[in-house]
Amino acid sequence: MILQSGDTRDSTRQALSPDTVPMPLPCPEVIDAASKREPLDVRAQRLFASLPYAYRLSVTRQRFPHVLNRIAAEWGAPKRFLELMDELLIDRRGNREGFPFDSVLELTRLREYYLDEVQVGLRKRLEARRSPW
């Protein structure tokens, strides 16, 4: 989705809402090196099962189970969770290939869900810190 210059964060949130974003198609059977090395651990399985269907990381779970393991490990620590999400979604080293679009969409939606539903009020506290007023 391309946002026009007049669009706001609200329109971004609306565009990412489960009502307006179609669920990704099932991922083809792709087995990468990471999925062979690290299976989904129990904590990640529990987190996946507890998430509302619209926020489950289905594609990410299938193709990058180690990522879901890391997310589950930081789920209860908001600061570390948000740092991890930034690390996953923003390339600060300049040498990463990045995730497929379906995974980026899932991760972005999960981050928004976490800020709005899991850690209620966290978004407002973060925005208040950034605002000079």
Verbal overview:
This protein is mainly α and 133 residues long. It is 58% helix and 0% strand. The protein has eight helices and no strands. It has helices at 9-16, 33-37, 42-50, 58-63, 65-74, 78-89, 101-118, 122-130. The termini are far apart.
Summarize the structure.
With 133 residues, this protein is mostly helical. It has 8 helices and no strands. The model is unreliable at 1-5 (pLDDT under 50).
- Indicate the proportion of strand residues: under 5%
Radius of gyration: 16 Å
- Provide mean pLDDT, rounded: 79
What's the β-strand tally? 0
Which residue ranges are poorly predicted, with pLDDT under 50 across at least 5 consecutive positions?
1-5
Helix-strand sequence: HHHHHHHH
Structural class: mainly alpha
Oligomeric nature of the chains? single chain
Helix content: 55-70%
- Helix tally equals 8
Largest sheet: none
| CA(first)-CA(last) distance | 31 Å
Shape descriptor: globular
